[in-house]
Amino acid sequence: MDEIQLIKGCKENKPKAQKELYETYARKMMAVCLRYTNDRESAQDLLQDGFIKVFTAIGTYSGNGSFEGWMRKIFVNTALEYLRKNDILRETVDIDSPDTLKEPDYSALEKISADELMELVRELPTGFRTVFNMFAIEGYSHKEIAEALGINESTSRSQFTRAKKLLQKKLEPFR
User: Fold this and answer.
1) Cα separation, 136 vs 126, whole angstroms
2) Residue 108: per-residue pLDDT
3) Residue 55 contacts by C-beta under 8 Å, 6 or more apart in sequence?
4) What molecular functions are annotated in GO for this chain (predicted)?
5) Which range of residues forms the domain containing residue 98?
6) For 156, which of 51, 63, 106, 145 could close a Cys bridge (C-beta 3.0–4.6 Å)?
7) Which residues of 84-94 are buried (b: 16+ CB within 10 A; e: fewer)?
């Protein structure tokens, strides 16, 4: 089935289409879930919850824009709901002026794989990791992040700056 047929089948609640949609996107959406939580079991729960939401809301997908992007937004929001519900984001701290960063040294990035880099991102504290994922990977603005997480825009900027600083420190052994 092509993507249009797959979406149509899911809108009609056809199990075969739902299964194929799951098999097509589960791996990518699991990667999204793992970026927001460090533990595989929680990520699998988020994956299940996310697909339930996708199948429930698929009738609202208008066909405008990328279907995968539409799904990704559902999974990011599902992960954020989980983090808020479990009060995991309480570690974020309001800071008016973000720390300054020295000029980044990208040489370490040439020496590690994407998987190793994502593992370093997963090791970040939850607040840092969440803002880093939303800004650097998902492309949200600091204003959108602040609204989604219920924090100040300056806090979002600070958390991102601190995440980059911590990642730079974690990359030092690879230089």
Assistant:
1) 15
2) 52
3) 10, 13, 18
4) DNA binding; sigma factor activity
5) 91-174
6) 145
7) eeeebbeebee
Give dist(CA 70, CA 75) in Å, integer: 9
What does the block give as tokens for 33? 């879930």
The tokens of 1 are what?
A: 């089935």
Residue 137: in which H helix or E strand, if any?
none
Using the 8-state DSSP alphabet, how is residue 123 labeled?
T
Contact 95, 158 (CB under 8 A): yes
Instruction: Please give the model's pTM, rounded to 2 decimal places.
Output: 0.76
Closest CA to 135 of 125, 39, 143, 38: 143
End of a domain among 65, 86, 107?
Answer: 86
Residues 68 and 107 in one domain: no
Q: In one letter, which amino acid is 121?
A: V
- Kindly state the average pLDDT of the residues 143-164: 92
What is the DSSP-derived secondary structure letter of residue 112? S
Based on the fold, state whether residues 49 and 23 are members of the same structural domain.
Answer: yes
Nearest to 78 by CA among 55, 40, 58, 52: 52
